[in-house]
């Protein structure tokens, strides 16, 4: 209990004093996670809509694989990305290992199936309502997908936020590919792991509380900007 109280106190002190180290780590966490979420959403949302709209022979198999990939072990993803980006790997010439870019790549691989699967569920229900209308209007597949993505944008925001929440709390994969290098690749989750290993539980808890507050703040900001549940909308 004392550690929790101390963690809350340290978190408040770090935030109120605008600690430079905390600000740097927090901004890097946001940079990596937001970038990964935007890229994963750009891939996952259309993918989920495409699977919902189209009928093909292996559709059920593709959906099953997509759902299974939601449980990708982060450390395995981190290991695969590490091997690909290492000097002896096929992409080693790019020199991306132990950089924020490598961390973004790992997070994109982890959260894209989550966003695609959730968006597929949302678009499938919307497609059932819009099917007859869009068919009667002779809309092309691309037009159908664009229409469904636009009309389902609030539900799809939930898919992106789910991906963001998964990415902001990721530690295993980004520890492997980022290396937790101070002033370079250290983010809130890896800093928490480091301080816990050092036995500084107060600081680790403080960083944890800041991480939780950051996730809540981003979610609230997006809901306010999108106008979710404004007025009579539920």
UniProtKB/TrEMBL annotation:
Record flagged with keyword Transmembrane: yes
InterPro entries reported for this sequence: ABC_perm_TupB-like, MetI-like, MetI-like_sf
Subcellular compartments: Cell membrane
Keywords for this protein: Membrane, Transmembrane, Transmembrane helix, Transport
Entries under Gene3D superfamilies matching the protein: MetI-like
Membrane topology: Multi-pass membrane protein
Domain ABC transmembrane type-1: start-end pairs: 26-222
Ranges annotated as spanning the membrane: 30-53, 65-85, 91-116, 155-181, 201-225
Family: Belongs to the binding-protein-dependent transport system permease family.
Protein name (Swiss-Prot/TrEMBL): ABC transporter permease
Lineage of the organism: Bacteria, Pseudomonadati, Pseudomonadota, Alphaproteobacteria, Rhodobacterales
